[in-house]
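User: For documentation purposes, I need each entry recorded in a consistent format: the amino acid sequence on its own, followed directly by the corresponding structure tokens. There are two entries in this batch. Please keep commentary to a minimum and don't merge the entries.

Assistant: Recorded as requested. Entry 1:
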Amino acid sequence: MKVILRTVMTLLLLPIFIQTASAQLTAELDSISVTSSRITSTISESGKSVAVIIQKQIEAMPVTSVDDLLKSIPGINVNARQGFGVQSDVGMRGSTFSQVLFMLDNVPLNDPLTAHFNTNIPVSLGEIGQIEIIRGPSSASFGADAVGGVVHIKTKMYMQREIDKPDGLLSYADADIAYGENNLRMGDLSFELQQDRWRLSTSIRGVFSDGERLPNPGFEAGVSDQTHYENYFELANFSTSLSYRMNDHWSWYVRGGADERDFSARYFYTRSEFDESVEQISSRWALGAITRDTGQNRTEFNISYRNVEDIFDFNSRIGSPVNEHITDQFFVNLSHEISLGDLGRSSLSNSRLMVGAQMLDKQIESTDRGNHQDRMGGIYLIGSAGWSSGFSLTASTRLQFDTQNDPEFLPQLSMAYNRGEITLRSSMGRAIRVGDFTERFISSQIEDLAPLRNIGNPDLLPERSWTFDIGMDWRPTNRTLISPTLFYRTSSDLIDYALTNSSDITNADNLQPDENYFYTLNIASSNTAGVEFLASHRFDVGSQKTVRTDAGYTWIRTSGNENEISKYIANHPKHQFSFTIDTSLSRFRITSESSYRVRNAESADLIAGDVPDGYFLTNLKLQYTFSGWPLAAYVQGLNLTDTRYQEILGAPMPGRWLMGGLKVRIR
């Protein structure tokens, strides 16, 4: 055991001595295209703080889900309720989890019921081609919810839909099968077929476990006869896509699938000793894109539909009603981009203009929230220009419409100056977020609601914020990146749950007299300031032997109304350190990912709740690729130090979890 710990600590401390950082491919700032403002640009031209995770990194990292991948990115805070992608709240730059927009292939993923479901990613890890993390406000380009930033997941088929394969029939197949402790079974299978202008892909993913056996706080409180409970989970999704490039200018792409989840949700949402929650979520979804690109003009039409059924059983054993929610979300977006060239000026190397419109329709039928419909949309204008001097500028503006609120004007500006080894960048923008169905209507249909439960507020105003940042990307060598960023956000009408007496709640008639509830309110104001620092270095240590080291640090300070007892505001680490090492030694590959977080401690003895003020986590993956065979074997350890911790009060995170697996790749 001591040998193992010494080995782990050596891997963790190595980045400190060589001064490197951040789990992303940002050293090559001019080799990766991103759509941080919908207009495609390189990272160095965007003026934004952008991180990119590509497929090769996903395959190597000791992670099991997208939210695990995000934990090592500076500026992102992940509060999970379970491991393995069961459920996580993702904030960015100290934002609440509702203020981050998740997208898949240029359509929004954010669930209209609750942002707790935003990380229910409906595609397998094997189908993801690239994940773009856009820090800072992006509402002008992408719409509401993009306050803290955007996580844009792009599948391989979406990224390659406009590329011909003239070499005849090509087929690919990948399989990743693993087994681990607590009867963990994982499988990720994908298949791709390409011929000429046609592309087809299909994938299926499953993650199942009996879960850890944990002490039952309800037994200690005398309200349950079960001494322990199991944190089980069963997750599965299926996805298929088809694309066709009709000619040199036109292409179309469609994708559809299903996502099924069944898991223990005990203490996910409440602090009640009676909580024995289980939850089942079924999603059906489809999206499509039609693109016309002539070089100077580019038009894209996106459409998506998603149906989600959520069945939540708090404790039917004691007669608590089972809540059922069915949501439907329909989205369309149309954009047209024009390349204006140099506009007749020799100093102007490139300029582009995009105009677009989008509409989002959301509906819910719920046993405890009622039946409701919202519709929102906007028209936007985006312009970008670059000069031969190295200066680039992107300006965006949007007029946002909402059936529940007045129109909002959302401007945004980002700038970059590239000069040799250094890129200076800055951005500023206004963003909004509209309350979801849960924040506005939760528990409104439950008679005689028990104290300390959540109660919605149908009269919520939209959140409004301004964010400013300034940063630098320094590349002293072509293998090294050092990147500091300062940011500041000021928010008004921030939506959050605050402990409120029923006598002060005038728009709910199902509360008990003179009792306290977590009531959604527009907190008067909030100010968030922070620093992000990342660095990255890659070097060769011999033939076919490379080491890439990444590390990052984030400091965040959030202040709000001192007299408000808030449930989610400032629920982020004050300090967050991350360390990643990826070592390739011929056929061996060793990847470690570690982090240390400092945050506000929180406890609740009634439900054995304990959020520590600091905790250290480390994951490790060892992989060997067989010579002459399309086969690799790996062992993986999560939370090697067996840290006992919670990130959401009452929901225990997994302890040490060991697993092993095989990967097969047929080309």
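Entry 2:
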Amino acid sequence: MSDQSQLQAQAAEISIDHKTLYPPSPEVVARARIKDRDTLSKFAADHPEQFWAERAEELEWYGKWEKVLDDSNKPFFKWFVGGKFNIVHNALDRHMKTWRKNKVAYIWQGEDFSERQISYADLNREVCRFANVLKSLGVKKGDRVTIYMGRVIELPIAMLACAKIGAVHSVVYGGFSVQALAGRILDSQSKVLVTCDGAYVNGKVVELKQIADDAIKEAPIVEKVVVYKRTGRKIGWVEGRDHWWHDLMKDASPVCETEVMDAEDPLFILYTSGSTGKPKALLHTHGGYAVYTYTTMRYVFDIQDEDRYWCAADPGWITGHSYIVYAPLMNGATSIIYEGGPAHPAPDRWWSIVEQYGVTILYCAPTGIRGLMRFGEEWPKKHDLSSLRLLGSVGEPINPEAWRWYYVHVGGSRCPIMDTWWQTETGGFMITPLPVTPLKPGSATQPFFGIRAEVVDDNGNPTPPGEEGYLTILAPWPGMARTIYGDPDRYVQTYWSRYPGRYFTGDSARVDQDGYFWIIGRVDDVLKVSGYRLGTAEVESALVSHPAVAEAAAIGLPHEVRGNAIYTYVILRAGYEGTPELAEELRQHVGKVMGPIARPEKVEFVAKLPKTRSGKIMRRVLKARAQGLPEGDLTTLEE
């Protein structure tokens, strides 16, 4: 068998498990909100504006839209034009008229095992109070407010309070560097900063207030700082500028009118880093974003009133914005928020939370799954996880080995995995299963209702089944970012210029013969070896399929003959030692799985991998380090 044919045949077996279908159980189908995906998909494809208008009718509007979609100024699309709306009215106000006002909105657990629960009515009061606090600090409709906090309930409260009065929140992940925070404050021109005295993560305290103080020296436009007391540690203080959260809240009124917004008014900006250049401030709006996130959560996670839903991300990421704060509250869900690290103080912390609170839906990142896999299945076995009915995956492609571990050892081989592909730019799920979708480990399955996705080659022509290309979206959707804040030209150049008329995702993918999408990774993460294109995710997946490997990263380095030589970095599971013999065994294993062409030049054992704080491996950093080159913007690096 030639290198190429062996590569294709064996990659199909490991990376793209076409043949093994995991159909939903009769129990899952019986309770699913959407039982017939195909019929609704066809309707949404044929009548996209009617489909989204009907979804929008499920929410409450101050005034109805005049036009569902305005595409007269492409690619700056507008949705529900002329509609009067506020996302907070739908997340909180409307529940005050129903039994849900006394339902638990959030169950919070600190890393130190402290606990809080807050009902929808209590959450509404706290949001109104903080909205009045912001007003007292001079915040007006359209002003930007930067939020830099740990994983506390006050983070969603601050976000919702901004949205309630029409201010635009810019959440910066708690723990980003001084430079990252300062740059985002300056870019957004925020005069108010909300932070904490510190945050607990993995048994340590992140000095948020100190980082904020240092950032303000580089971004002196900040006039007011609100500090939530979480740790009680001694912190720096500037009289007149700094204010304790609890002091301001003490006298604030629990009544605040929700600002009537236009559907296209800004809701938030959120920064996402690319491979090059400064981070991009994606701007999302009230109306379309609300309709899209509400709908995707309702159908994909099939959220029911009795569910205990846990998205284990941080509220500061787009995953947290969409699926910890806005969509769960609009759907009236009870959500879990956990403050700390997944393996602190022991590798069963997540599983103990699932058992303790009877979590029914768990949504987390593949990097979290792989990180806990390395400790073995005995840790989830210690706990009763029978409350779970659905699992979810987000942030990067999940390799089949991790998918199966998650399915078997966490979900008890009964919980469908909603493997969702989407981006900060898209606002919500774009390619995703529903509970009734037959699953293939490692595939995000099919586009959501109304989403027209296509994989194309360099010239924009659709690729044949099984052939890798570039993932594009052919038509607008309500949840899409409207622009890059302050830089519309960059928005057009980055997302709409490569394939005119299409949104270019920056991801490579392929579609199999069943129409299932397989996301390979960022276009930058594709290796060209002796004329063959290999996804780094495929090489990493082959490595992780070896019992010794917990996590892996692959990069391509220049090679005189082959174009790229594959270098790999491996984190071993507990009980294995990084010997030269094991390195050679792993090289041969990849060659056996994917064909000789994919055999790594080198396998290096490491204790950690450079990752963003959302868990994505920063392969460009590995590549720069290996070549002794500048590492570029590291503001999103975890450490």
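Summary note for entry 2:
The first helix runs from residue 3 to 14.
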